[in-house]
Amino acid sequence: MSTALIDDVLAWSTSRPDAPAIISTRMRMTYRELGSAVRRTAARLRALGVKPGGVIGVHAMPEWEAVLMLAVLHEGATSLHASAPVSAAYGDRIAMHLGRAPGSASAGRTIDVDEQFIALLGAVNADIDPRPFADNGVVRIVFSSGTTGTPKGIAFTEADLRSRTDSARLNWMPSDPFFCLLGIDTVSGFQTFAWSMLHGQPWIVPGNGEVNAELIRAAAVRSIKTSPARLNELLDAVEARGGRLPAVESVQVAGSLLTSRAIRRCETLIGVRPVYLYGSTEAGTITRGTADPDRPSRLGTAVDGAELRVLDESGRPIDELGVVGVLEYRTAATARSYWGSDVEPSPFHNGWFRPGDRGSLDELGVLELAGRTDDLVNAGGSKVNLADLDRVLAELDIVRDVATFAFELPGGLTAIGIVYVSTGDIAAEVFAERMHRAAPGVEFRSLIRVDAIPRNPRGKVSRKHLAELLEQP
Predict the structure, then answer these.
(1) Which one-letter DSSP state was computed for residue 105?
(2) What is the CA radius of gyration of the chain?
(3) How many other C-beta atoms can be found within 10 angstroms of the C-beta atom of residue 68?
(4) pLDDT, tens digit, for every residue of 376-412?
(5) How far apart are CA 182 and CA 270, in angstroms?
(6) Which residue, 367, 239, 226, is CA-closest to 296?
(7) Is 306 exposed, middle or buried (0-12, 13-18, 19+ CB in 10 A)?
């Protein structure tokens, strides 16, 4: 039998044909149109040789990536978002690429998803039935952020998809219309798309800050999930227009910590205080709590069905409250391993997952995050937490965006650099002086001004990639 996701989409195309299925600033597609596009695309893929059980890499504009993902499922195969890093790391496991990410090397058979591909769909006979999908087969492979190395894949079965979308509805989809500002290539974006398709609701396609503000107003969006970087883009767009988003009742943020300034700006410009969602691609949502501008590293308490504990360096649970250690957690949906790769040492332990984060728990069970294990560096004989340093510097009114990184000096010593986006034409000496005042105990050995800090689709920064900017002219 086919997957529920395909069965439901095709059923909605008959029972709710004129209901909106996909909404963006580029297009609007009803469930009738979506069902037809999926069938026609699936027939084309069948003719091109897509087989049940195969892994198909997809890279196209989001609206068409959604159609292609459903068409791949229609043919009993598995899709993944084929970013350049994913294609480079897992190309030998991908049977066919539909579209290619910029910068990707040739990786097996690639079909261009261009205007010609789309135009030819009109001549395709769409009178075909979905191919059977294997019991416990993989519906979609979703990748981690990859900020600490090669992106790592989590395989979603039909059961995983049901479990995670149910959890999403419970923990971070409080009201409709709901809008996730993270794309379909992220775990939150994929779950939002899947939930929408399973329930006959419209999937709103995110864009930049201006686009998202326009969509929120047009669709009277009531609840949002986003990352700190995407929230800041939205706040900039709202501020530029000089108005609020009157329908919005809930703003939820995941991926990294907000600055105190961002929390207060959200309250001022949107009228709500953001809520933190802490978790991972590997396990789902773990904690939830209202952000506190006076203590922005406090994330909230464990959601129903999630267990969280703090370990010492030897892996034993720490019973004492307020002591910082290595975080470990689990849910019913926690993965057991990564798809297509082995990671040593494994972060999976008897149903538990260690994300590489550090933190502590108080007497109320509130998690306070203390950065990642690899954010702690020894620079000039002093231990520096780069995540804490990012937040301190981000509070300065002379930067729109900022991130720090560690790099090695001749002789093997570790130094700290800063990449920043300026709020105006401010001299580098002024930046250096203000940053030294903000973090007086830290010596900065490199200061790099850019137009935009490179971030992944989740809005996260790879410190390794920031260090590579030193090599550029």
Answers:
(1) P
(2) 23
(3) 25
(4) 888 877 788 888 888 888 888 888 889 998 888 887 8
(5) 19
(6) 367
(7) buried
